[in-house]
Write a structure and sequence with these properties.
Elements (H helix, E strand, L loop, with lengths): L1 H19 L29 E5 L15 E4 L4 E7 L7 E7 L15 E4 L9 E2 L3 E3 L5 E6 L6 E7 L5 E4 L14 E6 L6
Antiparallel strand pairs: 1-3, 2-10, 3-9, 4-8, 4-11, 5-7, 5-10, 6-8
Length: 193
């Protein structure tokens, strides 16, 4: 008798569960079709949401000493990359400033030398600089992503032969290598919001 009651009780429980299962579905089922919802939520990462991934060197080559004003083109190609995972669609801009005048390892200066930067083939919706004069004064904008652009990973090419270094003829030039440091800064405030 106990086994019979247990079987009947189990069967009743299963029938009750089976009859309530359709009520748990997302939407009512009609015949052989039904609908349900699907969603996903994204949040900005805690760190690295807006990141300058890569910057480019500028190599202006080796040249004979000249007493005339000379302009030398960059001989290397490079890339600048920005990653924007903020999820705000607010845009950004990249600036460059020359840290100091070109100088030798002994500290001899190449006075008055000025870099003119030109970016190209930038990500859709972003604007690379044209003829941006980089010097030891204020930082200059070299790439801008206005509001509504620049999401994900964006790249800008620094093509060989597109940027230049002007060296005044009056500058003292030693038979040596002159270097400077370019400081690249990524800001979350585009110029044209």
């Amino acid at each position: 008798m106990k086994i019979k009651n247990l079987v009947i009780t189990s069967a009743t429980l299963l029938a009750t569960l089976a009859s309530t299962t359709p009520a748990m579905a997302a939407n009512a089922v009609n015949g052989t079709t039904g609908t349900s919802d699907s969603d996903v939520t994204f949040t900005a990462p805690d760190k690295g949401a807006l990141t300058l991934l890569k910057v480019s060197d500028l190599n202006f080559g080796s040249h004979p000493i000249s007493a005339a004003d000379e302009t030398y083109s960059n001989e290397n190609a490079g890339k600048v990359s920005v990653q924007d995972l903020r999820g705000s669609n607010e845009g950004w801009k990249v600036q460059v400033q020359q840290a100091n005048e070109f100088k030798t390892s002994k500290g001899d200066l190449l006075k008055g030398a000025e870099i003119t930067f030109n970016g190209s083939n930038a990500a859709t919706g972003t604007t690379p600089a044209t003829d941006a004069a980089i010097n030891t004064g204020n930082a200059v904008d070299v790439w801008t992503a206005p509001k509504g652009s620049g999401n994900g990973v964006s790249n800008m090419d620094v093509e060989a032969g597109k940027s230049s270094l002007m060296v005044p003829g009056a500058s003292t030039k030693l038979a040596d290598t002159y270097t400077t440091t370019l400081n690249w800064t990524l800001l979350d405030s585009p110029a044209n919001k």
